[in-house]
Amino acid sequence: MLLVTIFNSVLALILLILGSPLLIFLAILLRITGGPPVFYKGIRLGINKKTFVIYKFRTLPVNAQQIIGAELLSDNHHMVSPLTRFLRATRLDEIPQLINILNGDMDFIGPRPERPEVYETRCKNIKDYDRRFMVKPGLIGYSQLFTPHGTPKIVRTHIDNRLMLKKRQFSWSIYLIVYTILIMLRDVYKEGMISFRTFINTRIRKKYAEHRTSRRLRPQNITVYWRLASDQSRPYQTEVILFDINDNCFRLHSKEKLPRGALEFKLSRQITRDNRHKTKRALCKGEVVIERTKEDDSMPHISIIHYSPVSQLNQYLMDKYFTEQSMA
After folding, report:
1. Mean of per-residue pLDDT scores for the chain
2. Max avg pLDDT among 100-109, 209-218, 293-302
C-alpha cells in the first residue's frame, strides 16, 4: 500500500508539471468563454465518509448545484456549451484532481467520490454501497470507465465492489492508468472530430441548424427493425438505414414513408471483443417527430424518431453499445 501511495503522489506531480501548458490553455479558454471562476470546488465523500474539497474545471453555471440538487446531470438541464461538453466527454475537466491526489484525498484508481446529497437520496440504502468508503476515491473510477453515465447505481456499485479488490495489486493499478490514458486520447480525437464536423456543417457550410442538445453519433454495423406498436403480431420490418443517433433521437432513411403514431424499434449491432463476435440488441418505443423527403435518392424518406428504451436494461444497452456513452 505504501508503494501505491508513493507512486500516486510521484505520478500526479509529474503529470501536473508536464500537463501545465494544457491546464493553462484550458483555463484561458474557459475564462474567455464562460467567465470566472475557472475552477469548480465541491464537497465530496472520501475514505471513511470524510468530506473533502474536490477540484475540477468549471463546466457548468456557477449556480448549477443549487439547480440540480441531488439529481444527476443530463442534457435535459441545458447547462453545457460546446467547449464544456467536449471537456466532460473526454474527462479533461477532471485533470485538476491531480491536486487532490497530491493532497492525499484521492488515488488514481478507486470508486469515484460521491456528493453527500446524492449519497443520502440515491445511494445510502443500496446494499454494500458503503464498502466504497473503505478506500480512497479515485480519479479513475471503475464503473465510470466500464459503464455509461446513466447506468443504475446498483449496477455501478456491484462493479466498483468487485474491482475494488484488485486495487491492492500494483500491476493492476499501472495497467488501468495506462489503459485509461489511451482511452482518453482516443476520446479526445473522436470528440474533436465530431465537434469539428458539426462546426463545419452548421457554421461554415450552413447545411443545417443544430437543434439537438446531445451530440450526434454515426455508429457502424447497426441494423434497425421497426413495427407498429398497435400490431405486435406483425414481424419487424428492416428496410431502413440508421444515419445518426443520440440519447433521445435517431435519424432513419427509408424507401417508404414511416407511419405516424406509436412505433416499436429493435436495434441490433455486431460487437467484436477479444476476437469474438457478439450481437447486442435493444428495444425501444418511439414516434416520428420530423420528416422530410430527399429526391433522387434510393432511401428518399428521412425521419427523426424520438425514442425511449422500454426498460432500465435496454437503457443500459442503448447507452453502452449504441450511443457509446461508456469510456471503454
Report:
1. 86
2. 100-109
* Highest mean pLDDT: which range of 50-54, 220-224, 234-238: 50-54
Q: Which domains does the chain have, with CATH numbers?
A: 2-199 (no CATH), 222-322 (2.40.10)
Gap between the terminal Cα atoms of the chain = 27
Is residue 76 exposed (0-12), middle (13-18) or buried (19+ Cβ within 10 Å)?
exposed
* Residues 208, 306: Cα–Cα separation, whole Å: 19
The total number of residues written for the chain in this structure: 328
User: Residues with Cβ < 8 Å from 152, sequence gap 6 or more?
Assistant: 312, 316
pLDDT range class, residue 275, cuts 50, 70, 90 = confident
